Amino acid sequence: MAEASRWHRGGTSKHLYYRKEIEIRTTLQELLLYFIFLINLCILTFGMVNPHTYYLNKVMSSLFLDTSVPNDERTNFKSIRSITDFWKFMEGPLLEGLYWDSWYNNQKLYNLNNSSRIYYENILLGVPRVRQLKVRNNTCKIYSPFKSLVSECYDKYTSENEDLSDFGLKHDTEWKYSTSNTSSLWHWGFAGVYRNGGYIFTLSKSKSETKTKFTDLQLNSWITRGTRVVFIDFSLYNANVNLFCIIRLVAEFPATGGILTSWQFYSVKLLRYVSYYDYFIASCEITFCIFLFVFTTQELKKMKEFKFAYFKSVWNWLELLLLLLCFMAVSFYIYCNSQIFLLLGQLLKSTEKYPDFYFLAYWSIYYNNIIAITIFFAWIKIFKFISFNKTMSQLSSTLSRCMKDIVGFAIMFFIIFFAYAQLGFLVFGSQVDDFSTFQNSVFAQFRIVLGDFNFAGIQQANWILGPIYFITFIFFVFFVLLNMFLAIINDTYSEVKADYAIGRKPDFELGKMIKKSYHNALEKLKLRKPQKDEDKNIRTTGDLAEQTRREGFDENEIEKAEQMKKWKERLEKEYYSSEMKEDYQPVTQQEFRKLFLYAVELEKELHYISSKLNQVMRKLSAIQY
């Protein structure tokens, strides 16, 4: 019976050992597989991004945004503030930027009737389009005493206030409202959200005809008091780098008067498979789909095996989020490419019409954003595998232990933070751009914490409340709350370090397994001499005891333990001397820290003695039976 019990204990220990080995090897296989997936994803994402997109956007923005109007060096598209400045820009930088009909020595390079070539390299696709949206008169309520002074009133733009009636000369499309026949999305501007359609006209391929058109529109007051926004849209293609550049210049005319300008430059790669490198990226895309299928199958098996316990792990939630993002990326990719296949030929069919590439560029940008978020979380998932490392395990243990304290602190922090944000918005919102909206106030306060602030603007807006707001915010948020946050992290990390110092650390060391596999591989490749058994057995009893005592500790820990042994002897003399006084002596913080470390050292030695006693008892039991 006793022999059977001993066999059962030995069999159980072996079973647990082999189970641990299998778990380690499975984790290593998952890590290797995931690294291959991550490398493939990085090649895929960086292969989609063309390094020339930034330079193409920069060149075009410099041409259309920074070029000054004739005879006025201070006025460009960014600085337009009146309708007069707007027409100067249309007849000056816009006209000159769109029509490049000759080389620097006035030599004709191509047939302009076909298409213009901006900077001689970028083909203007079709013709540019200009459209405006208006609101009706008497769309706002006027206080009765002022009705005799105000005969016309144009409210801000909404779809309910939009003017759909013809105006002006009423004989061309620019004077008649046209509904949109494309699937482009609405535009979100500074002063409103603008839908498609409006009063539209397209430019000519002739520079002189376009200039005459601008003059006629200006003389006949195409822009009225009801105008709320004007869009200038055109698209370019650069065959040298295989990039489309979709440009939108926006001039908003808010109800307050003046003009707010904004712009969008989207350089996208719509023709994906042109070169041999593009086909290599296509093979990476197929590999990505295979990995996605494999990972999805693995997670479904885990969910079936663990059921509701599966959702208790944070890493499983991260896995599900990553799979969801991958499926979204694949869906966006299929949708974008199908739309490009259906619309690209149609858009390029007529060179006399405006080709609306904005829709394709918009969804391509969204696809790139989804891919960017996906690869971000893909890198975060690596922490799942390296958390078995001692340092990373300490980090994860620290964060998990202090999570409740951080949540409580976050509630207190954001109560004070949002209170200051609302105060700043109400006091400085009408004077300081950083506090013009509540959202701007929130981000402005984050910048204050990082040291980026405009104290002069705050003080000028309110010379009493401005300094009070700034000083109290810095004191409570920066000096008090942020230091409380650091104290929570620091104290928890000290507790975790103390637990690890007395041996309370995970036994699952992935790094040791990787190191062992590495040495085995070197021995098989004959790049490292195998360790002989005789060398292992030729050890003195003292060396074996020393090796046994130091097992599980690295050189730094051994050196630290020897220093603490000397320190402990000195501490015993100091606190256990027969000459200690009987009266009470207060303990300083430094003495308390010494006593705490002494207690940790004692617990470590007790743990060591306990393990040795267990070994002796097992040996005695084996001899007895």
Automatic annotation (TrEMBL):
Keyword set includes Cell membrane: no
GO molecular function: calcium channel activity; calcium ion binding
Any one Gene Ontology BP term: detection of mechanical stimulus
Keyword Transport appears in the UniProt entry: yes
Any one Gene Ontology cellular component term annotated for this protein: membrane
Localisation per UniProt entry: Membrane
Keywords: Coiled coil, Glycoprotein, Ion channel, Ion transport, Membrane, Transmembrane, Transmembrane helix, Transport
Pfam families reported for this sequence: PKD_channel, Polycystin_dom
Main subcellular location: membrane
UniProt similarity note: Belongs to the polycystin family.
Known role: Exhibits a lower single conductance but no spontaneous channel activity. May function as a regulator of calcium channels or a channel component involving Ca2(+) homeostasis.
Record protein name field: Polycystin-2-like protein 2
Species this chain originates from: Castor canadensis
Upper taxonomic lineage: Eukaryota, Metazoa, Chordata, Craniata, Vertebrata
Gene this chain is encoded by: Pkd2l2
